[in-house]
């Protein structure tokens, strides 16, 4: 036998050894938990596939809370739920837990719908309904605990529920375990939010690419440069407020009745400017449709008023269904006679500066918007131009441009700018630049271009 002194020494040292072992065990448990949470954080930073990240959630939840099973349930926007992942660790109740979860999630939407039909009740939280459904379906002896996955978007929204299960009678849902499960739920919420932001970014990039392609197509449909028309100096430009605009202008060679040996610049030319109500892709599509139909009509040799009438009848149904309309000014210039014949479908009338008198007049006729009323009749007027005369075609982005005070550029100011520019003897391109500069100066550095701006300058040379 050991001496009494040795027994006394051993007896006195046992609590110390037990305490050291307890501290060592706690350190190992803490280290294990830290490693698991670190692994989860690494996965959050590294995984591009959200499903791969979801596979880790129940596994780590089991380990850090010492539960026998854990499940991740996600909510959908329509109030339904889906069992995303289930992990069972040494539990013979796994089939029963899975069956209870699948049944509870499947009936969640109906339960929420029934409960919200009560006019005297408030809309129940999805987590409370799901917990009750799960409680009713789990076998006796299985306890479960859960925490909600909340994602911050416009506000805090429930995106799912994270559960742990245990059938051990001595299992306690301690504050530490609650905190650990909440940490995992928060990491899951971050992963969901990151995935949604990445999806929105990809959608935005795809949309930007589509808009870029649409803008490129539209740029190609607009004239790349002004044609050479006998006796005319031309300049034109379109500045869109967004990727794709609704403004339209065109120069159409009318070869109908032109001799094969005759230079195309000596023949008649259609000059058009239009504006589709609205901006963006829908307006751009309608503009493209208008361009194709207008060219087809012009090449058939119809006079301007008849062309607008045909367009109005042909486009009425499509424009009405899209709740958009088109303003269009179409003119035909004959270089041999210097006669400009025109018809207007409610577009802003071009301004004609007469070199002989130094005055400005409007070129306008009666006519309704394209697509408003198929019975509309369009008038046609002819004006003979003289050397030095200048015609400016424009869209409402010019006259409706506003400055920070709320004042608009308006037609009167455009006419005054035109008079000053023409008095300087500027050519067509310099005159166009002069007008655009005046509009930009009026808007100011704090202003912005809120609508497409299109200009055509036609100057009759001496």
Report on this model:
It holds the Pfam family SpoIIE. Residues 229-460 form the PPM-type phosphatase domain. Keywords: Hydrolase. This is Guanylate cyclase. With 462 residues, the chain is an alpha+beta fold. The chain has two domains: 33-197, 2-Layer Sandwich (Beta-Lactamase), CATH 3.30.450.40; 223-460, Phosphatase 2c, domain 1. The protein is built from eleven helices and 14 strands. It has helices spanning 4-46, 50-65, 94-106, 108-116, 126-137, 175-221, 280-299, 304-322, 396-399, 410-423, 428-443; strands spanning 69-75, 81-88, 143-152, 156-166, 232-239, 247-254, 268-276, 326-334, 339-345, 351-354, 359-362, 381-384, 390-394, 453-460. The strands form three sheets. Strands 5-14-13-10-11 form a five-stranded antiparallel β-sheet.
Question: What's a quick, concise take on this entry?
Answer:
With 462 residues, this protein is of the alpha+beta class. It has eleven helices and 14 strands. The longest helix has 47 residues, at 175-221.
**Estimated share of beta-strand residues:** 15-25%
Low-confidence stretches: 1-11, 114-123
**Count of β-strands:** 14
Helix percent reads 40-55%
**Overall shape:** elongated
**Rounded Rg:** 38 Å
Distance between the termini: 134 Å
By secondary-structure content and strand pairing, the structural class works out as alpha+beta
Order of helices and strands: HHEEHHHEEHEEEHHEEEEEEHHHE
What is the topology?
Blueprint: H1 4-46, H2 50-65, E1 69-75, E2 81-88, H3 94-106, H4 108-116, H5 126-137, E3 143-152, E4 156-166, H6 175-221, E5 232-239, E6 247-254, E7 268-276, H7 280-299, H8 304-322, E8 326-334, E9 339-345, E10 351-354, E11 359-362, E12 381-384, E13 390-394, H9 396-399, H10 410-423, H11 428-443, E14 453-460
Helix pairs in contact: 1-2, 1-6, 2-6, 3-5, 6-7, 7-8, 10-11
């Amino acid at each position: 036998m050991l001496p009494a002194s040795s027994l006394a020494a051993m007896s006195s040292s046992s609590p110390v050894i037990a305490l050291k072992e307890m501290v060592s065990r706690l350190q190992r448990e803490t280290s294990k938990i830290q490693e698991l949470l670190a692994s989860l954080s690494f996965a959050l930073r590294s995984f591009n596939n959200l499903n791969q990240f979801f596979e880790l959630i129940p596994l780590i939840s089991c380990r850090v809370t010492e539960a026998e099973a854990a499940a991740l349930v996600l909510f959908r926007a329509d109030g339904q739920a889906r069992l995303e992942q289930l992990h069972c660790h040494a539990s013979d109740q796994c089939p029963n837990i899975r069956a209870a979860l699948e049944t509870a999630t499947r009936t969640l939407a109906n339960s929420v719908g029934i409960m919200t039909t009560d006019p005297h009740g408030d809309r129940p939280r999805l987590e409370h309904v799901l917990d009750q459904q799960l409680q009713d379906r789990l076998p006796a002896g299985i306890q479960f605990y859960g925490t909600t996955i909340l994602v911050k978007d416009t506000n805090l929204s429930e995106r799912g529920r994270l559960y742990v299960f245990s059938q051990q009678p001595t299992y306690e849902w301690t504050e530490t375990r609650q905190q650990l499960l909440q940490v995992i739920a928060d990491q899951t919420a971050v992963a969901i939010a990151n995935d949604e932001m990445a999806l929105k970014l990809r959608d935005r990039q795809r949309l930007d690419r589509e808009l870029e392609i649409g803008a490129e197509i539209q740029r190609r449909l607009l004239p790349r440069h002004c044609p050479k028309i006998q006796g005319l100096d031309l300049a034109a430009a379109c500045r869109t407020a967004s990727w794709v605009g609704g403004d339209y202008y065109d120069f159409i060679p009318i070869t109908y009745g032109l001799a094969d040996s005759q230079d195309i610049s000596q023949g008649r030319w259609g000059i058009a400017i239009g504006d589709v109500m609205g901006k963006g892709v829908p307006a751009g599509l309608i503009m493209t449709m208008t361009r194709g139909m207008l060219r087809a009509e012009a090449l058939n040799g119809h006079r301007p008023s008849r062309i607008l009438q045909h367009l109005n009848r042909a486009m009425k149904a499509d424009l009405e269904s899209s709740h958009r309309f088109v303003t269009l000014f179409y003119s035909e210039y004959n270089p041999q006679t210097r006669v400009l014949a025109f018809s207007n479908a409610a577009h802003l009338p071009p301004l004609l500066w007469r070199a002989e008198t130094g005055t400005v007049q409007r070129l306008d006729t009666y006519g309704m918007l394209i697509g408003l009323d198929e019975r509309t009749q369009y008038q046609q007027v002819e004006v003979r131009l003289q050397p030095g005369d200048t015609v400016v075609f424009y869209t409402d982005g010019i006259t409706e441009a506003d400055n920070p005070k709320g004042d608009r550029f308006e037609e009167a100011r455009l006419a005054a700018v035109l008079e000053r520019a023409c008095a300087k003897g500027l050519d067509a391109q310099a005159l166009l630049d002069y007008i655009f500069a005046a509009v930009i100066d009026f808007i100011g550095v704090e202003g912005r271009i809120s609508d497409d701006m299109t200009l055509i300058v036609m100057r009759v040379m001496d």
